Amino acid sequence: MIIAVDGPAAAGKGTLARRLAQHLDLPYLDTGLLYRAVGRRVLDAGADPADPAAAEAAAQALMPEDTARGDLRGPAQDEAASKVAAIPGVRAALLEFQRRFGQERGAVLDGRDIGTVVFPEAKVKLFVTAHPRERARRRHLEMLGRGQDATLEAVEAEMAARDARDAARDVAPLVPARDALLLDTTDLDAEAAFRRALALITGKSKLSA
Protein backbone atom coordinates (compact mmCIF):
# COMPACT_ATOMS: atom_id res chain seq x y z
CA MET A 1 0.00 0.00 0.00
CA ILE A 2 1.17 3.49 -0.86
CA ILE A 3 -0.36 6.31 1.16
CA ALA A 4 0.40 9.79 -0.18
CA VAL A 5 0.07 12.61 2.33
CA ASP A 6 0.42 16.06 0.79
CA GLY A 7 -0.21 19.56 2.04
CA PRO A 8 1.35 22.88 3.04
CA ALA A 9 3.71 23.50 5.93
CA ALA A 10 2.45 23.11 9.52
CA ALA A 11 -0.85 21.55 8.48
CA GLY A 12 0.06 18.48 10.51
CA LYS A 13 0.89 16.12 7.65
CA GLY A 14 4.24 14.99 9.06
CA THR A 15 2.85 14.07 12.47
CA LEU A 16 -0.09 12.35 10.83
CA ALA A 17 2.01 10.44 8.30
CA ARG A 18 4.37 9.11 10.97
CA ARG A 19 1.43 7.95 13.07
CA LEU A 20 -0.23 6.25 10.11
CA ALA A 21 3.00 4.49 9.15
CA GLN A 22 3.44 3.18 12.68
CA HIS A 23 -0.18 2.04 12.93
CA LEU A 24 -0.16 0.33 9.53
CA ASP A 25 3.38 -1.07 9.91
CA LEU A 26 4.63 0.71 6.79
CA PRO A 27 7.93 2.51 6.13
CA TYR A 28 7.74 6.30 6.43
CA LEU A 29 9.50 8.97 4.38
CA ASP A 30 9.39 12.72 4.99
CA THR A 31 10.23 13.85 1.46
CA GLY A 32 10.47 17.46 2.59
CA LEU A 33 13.70 16.55 4.40
CA LEU A 34 15.27 15.69 1.05
CA TYR A 35 14.69 19.21 -0.22
CA ARG A 36 15.73 20.73 3.09
CA ALA A 37 18.97 18.76 2.97
CA VAL A 38 19.65 19.92 -0.59
CA GLY A 39 18.96 23.51 0.42
CA ARG A 40 21.26 23.12 3.42
CA ARG A 41 24.06 21.80 1.20
CA VAL A 42 23.69 24.83 -1.09
CA LEU A 43 23.76 27.25 1.85
CA ASP A 44 26.81 25.53 3.31
CA ALA A 45 28.58 26.03 -0.02
CA GLY A 46 27.81 29.74 0.12
CA ALA A 47 25.67 29.53 -3.01
CA ASP A 48 22.16 30.71 -3.86
CA PRO A 49 19.44 28.04 -3.46
CA ALA A 50 17.70 29.56 -6.50
CA ASP A 51 20.76 28.86 -8.68
CA PRO A 52 19.91 25.75 -10.77
CA ALA A 53 23.53 24.64 -11.20
CA ALA A 54 24.34 24.81 -7.48
CA ALA A 55 21.06 23.21 -6.43
CA GLU A 56 21.27 20.37 -8.95
CA ALA A 57 24.86 19.60 -7.94
CA ALA A 58 23.77 19.46 -4.29
CA ALA A 59 20.86 17.15 -5.13
CA GLN A 60 23.08 14.78 -7.09
CA ALA A 61 25.58 14.63 -4.23
CA LEU A 62 22.94 14.10 -1.53
CA MET A 63 23.68 11.31 0.94
CA PRO A 64 21.15 9.58 3.23
CA GLU A 65 22.93 10.95 6.29
CA ASP A 66 22.28 14.50 5.06
CA THR A 67 18.62 14.12 6.06
CA ALA A 68 19.63 13.36 9.66
CA ARG A 69 21.31 16.72 10.23
CA GLY A 70 20.02 18.79 13.11
CA ASP A 71 20.06 22.11 11.25
CA LEU A 72 17.35 21.49 8.64
CA ARG A 73 14.64 23.55 10.34
CA GLY A 74 14.16 27.28 10.57
CA PRO A 75 13.22 30.23 8.33
CA ALA A 76 16.42 30.15 6.24
CA GLN A 77 16.10 26.41 5.66
CA ASP A 78 12.38 26.72 4.88
CA GLU A 79 13.10 29.32 2.21
CA ALA A 80 16.06 27.39 0.78
CA ALA A 81 14.01 24.18 0.55
CA SER A 82 11.19 25.98 -1.25
CA LYS A 83 13.61 27.53 -3.75
CA VAL A 84 15.50 24.34 -4.63
CA ALA A 85 12.18 22.46 -4.88
CA ALA A 86 11.13 24.75 -7.73
CA ILE A 87 14.11 23.65 -9.86
CA PRO A 88 13.24 20.82 -12.31
CA GLY A 89 16.71 19.26 -12.16
CA VAL A 90 16.53 18.95 -8.38
CA ARG A 91 13.11 17.31 -8.47
CA ALA A 92 14.28 14.88 -11.16
CA ALA A 93 17.32 13.91 -9.11
CA LEU A 94 15.20 13.13 -6.04
CA LEU A 95 12.21 11.56 -7.77
CA GLU A 96 13.78 8.13 -8.33
CA PHE A 97 14.93 7.93 -4.72
CA GLN A 98 11.39 8.50 -3.49
CA ARG A 99 9.89 5.95 -5.87
CA ARG A 100 12.39 3.26 -4.93
CA PHE A 101 11.64 3.83 -1.27
CA GLY A 102 7.90 3.29 -1.73
CA GLN A 103 8.08 0.42 -4.17
CA GLU A 104 10.04 -1.92 -1.90
CA ARG A 105 7.16 -2.86 0.40
CA GLY A 106 4.76 0.08 0.37
CA ALA A 107 5.08 3.24 2.41
CA VAL A 108 3.54 6.35 3.83
CA LEU A 109 5.16 9.38 2.22
CA ASP A 110 4.46 13.00 3.03
CA GLY A 111 5.37 16.00 0.93
CA ARG A 112 3.87 18.35 -1.61
CA ASP A 113 3.67 16.27 -4.78
CA ILE A 114 3.44 12.65 -3.64
CA GLY A 115 -0.09 12.10 -4.96
CA THR A 116 0.38 14.18 -8.12
CA VAL A 117 3.90 13.29 -9.28
CA VAL A 118 5.76 10.72 -7.19
CA PHE A 119 2.95 8.16 -6.83
CA PRO A 120 0.00 9.37 -8.93
CA GLU A 121 -1.31 5.78 -8.91
CA ALA A 122 -1.42 5.57 -5.10
CA LYS A 123 -4.73 4.10 -3.95
CA VAL A 124 -4.93 6.42 -0.95
CA LYS A 125 -4.13 10.13 -1.22
CA LEU A 126 -4.68 12.62 1.57
CA PHE A 127 -4.36 16.38 1.24
CA VAL A 128 -3.89 17.81 4.71
CA THR A 129 -4.53 21.51 5.19
CA ALA A 130 -5.49 24.07 7.85
CA HIS A 131 -6.29 27.76 8.05
CA PRO A 132 -3.15 29.86 7.38
CA ARG A 133 -3.36 31.60 10.75
CA GLU A 134 -3.56 28.28 12.61
CA ARG A 135 -0.65 26.89 10.61
CA ALA A 136 1.41 29.98 11.45
CA ARG A 137 0.50 29.62 15.14
CA ARG A 138 1.69 26.01 15.16
CA ARG A 139 4.96 26.81 13.40
CA HIS A 140 5.54 29.77 15.72
CA LEU A 141 5.16 27.52 18.77
CA GLU A 142 7.58 25.01 17.24
CA MET A 143 10.15 27.73 16.70
CA LEU A 144 9.78 29.08 20.22
CA GLY A 145 10.21 25.53 21.51
CA ARG A 146 13.53 25.31 19.66
CA GLY A 147 14.66 28.62 21.12
CA GLN A 148 14.24 30.54 17.85
CA ASP A 149 13.18 34.17 18.11
CA ALA A 150 10.38 35.17 15.75
CA THR A 151 7.06 36.98 15.86
CA LEU A 152 3.82 35.31 14.85
CA GLU A 153 3.31 37.98 12.20
CA ALA A 154 6.73 37.32 10.65
CA VAL A 155 6.12 33.57 10.60
CA GLU A 156 2.72 34.04 8.97
CA ALA A 157 4.21 36.31 6.29
CA GLU A 158 7.03 33.86 5.55
CA MET A 159 4.59 30.96 5.28
CA ALA A 160 2.30 32.93 2.97
CA ALA A 161 5.24 33.70 0.68
CA ARG A 162 6.26 30.05 0.63
CA ASP A 163 2.70 28.90 -0.06
CA ALA A 164 2.50 31.28 -3.02
CA ARG A 165 5.86 30.16 -4.36
CA ASP A 166 5.02 26.46 -3.98
CA ALA A 167 1.60 26.85 -5.64
CA ALA A 168 2.90 28.93 -8.55
CA ARG A 169 5.96 26.92 -9.56
CA ASP A 170 5.89 25.35 -13.01
CA VAL A 171 7.09 21.92 -11.87
CA ALA A 172 4.98 19.92 -9.39
CA PRO A 173 3.03 22.81 -7.88
CA LEU A 174 1.40 22.33 -4.50
CA VAL A 175 -2.14 21.30 -5.44
CA PRO A 176 -4.37 18.45 -4.28
CA ALA A 177 -4.51 15.40 -6.55
CA ARG A 178 -7.89 15.13 -8.26
CA ASP A 179 -8.73 12.03 -6.26
CA ALA A 180 -7.22 13.19 -2.97
CA LEU A 181 -9.25 13.07 0.22
CA LEU A 182 -9.24 16.48 1.94
CA LEU A 183 -8.47 16.61 5.65
CA ASP A 184 -8.75 20.02 7.32
CA THR A 185 -6.97 19.95 10.68
CA THR A 186 -7.71 23.54 11.74
CA ASP A 187 -9.88 22.42 14.66
CA LEU A 188 -8.33 18.98 15.19
CA ASP A 189 -5.58 17.91 17.55
CA ALA A 190 -3.12 15.19 16.48
CA GLU A 191 -5.24 12.34 17.84
CA ALA A 192 -8.45 13.57 16.20
CA ALA A 193 -6.63 14.11 12.88
CA PHE A 194 -5.24 10.56 13.04
CA ARG A 195 -8.65 9.02 13.68
CA ARG A 196 -10.25 11.07 10.91
CA ALA A 197 -7.50 10.05 8.47
CA LEU A 198 -7.77 6.39 9.45
CA ALA A 199 -11.52 6.51 8.82
CA LEU A 200 -10.93 8.06 5.39
CA ILE A 201 -8.33 5.43 4.51
CA THR A 202 -10.58 2.58 5.68
CA GLY A 203 -13.48 3.93 3.64
CA LYS A 204 -11.31 4.38 0.57
CA SER A 205 -9.90 0.87 0.89
CA LYS A 206 -13.39 -0.65 1.09
CA LEU A 207 -14.50 1.24 -2.02
CA SER A 208 -11.39 0.06 -3.90
CA ALA A 209 -11.80 -3.57 -2.87
From TrEMBL:
Its EC number is 2.7.4.25. It catalyses: CMP + ATP = CDP + ADP; dCMP + ATP = dCDP + ADP. It holds the Pfam family Cytidylate_kin. It comes from the Bacteria. The keyword ATP-binding applies. It is found in: Cytoplasm. Residues 3-199 form the Cytidylate kinase domain. Keywords: ATP-binding, Cytoplasm, Kinase, Nucleotide-binding, Transferase. GO terms for molecular function: kinase activity. It is an enzyme of class 2 (transferase). Transmembrane segments: none annotated. ATP binds at G7, P8, A9, A10, A11, G12, K13, G14, T15. Belongs to the cytidylate kinase family. Type 1 subfamily. This is Cytidylate kinase. It comes from Sabulicella glaciei.
